[in-house]
Amino acid sequence: MTTVQRIHVTENERQIFDLLLRAVGNFSPKTKLRVAGGWVRDKNIECLLLSLNGYLRSQGEDEVQGHVIESKPAQEGKQKPTLETVKMSLYNHSIDLVHLRRDVYARGSRIPVKVVFASLEEDAFRRALTINSLFYNIHTGLVEDLTGRG
């Protein structure tokens, strides 16, 4: 596992993470919490954009403008199977809590037929886009790259 970097966490995000850490510490102290997917990707894209603009400024070039494009909802009839998800709102943020997972495919198909519980590494390697395999470890405050390709 490669530790990538620390990322900026807003006060509101810190409140959410602290609440989750306290709750898990109370009922399941061995559980490790991580944030995966879009939030970590977006935070790293913001860092990449800032770094790129810093480089461009140092070279006397114009900065680039950018933003993250939100994903589109799945199309009707093309939903893949999922594990249970807890959806909630904490401090004005929508939060989804899910288990680590891996997809099981039929031979020759790209559509999963089953979703099963998995290890942290299996979850990281199943992700289609390598930057989505980055995890933010709430306990350490570090971004983790289990694939080495995030």
UniProtKB/TrEMBL annotation:
Source superkingdom: Eukaryota
Keywords: RNA-binding, Transferase
One Gene Ontology molecular-function label: RNA binding
GO biological process, one term: tRNA 3'-terminal CCA addition
Poly A polymerase head domain location: 33-148
UniProt-listed Pfam families: PolyA_pol
Transmembrane portions of the chain: none
Protein family according to the UniProt entry: Belongs to the tRNA nucleotidyltransferase/poly(A) polymerase family.
Protein name per its UniProtKB record: Poly A polymerase head domain-containing protein
Natural source organism: Microthlaspi erraticum
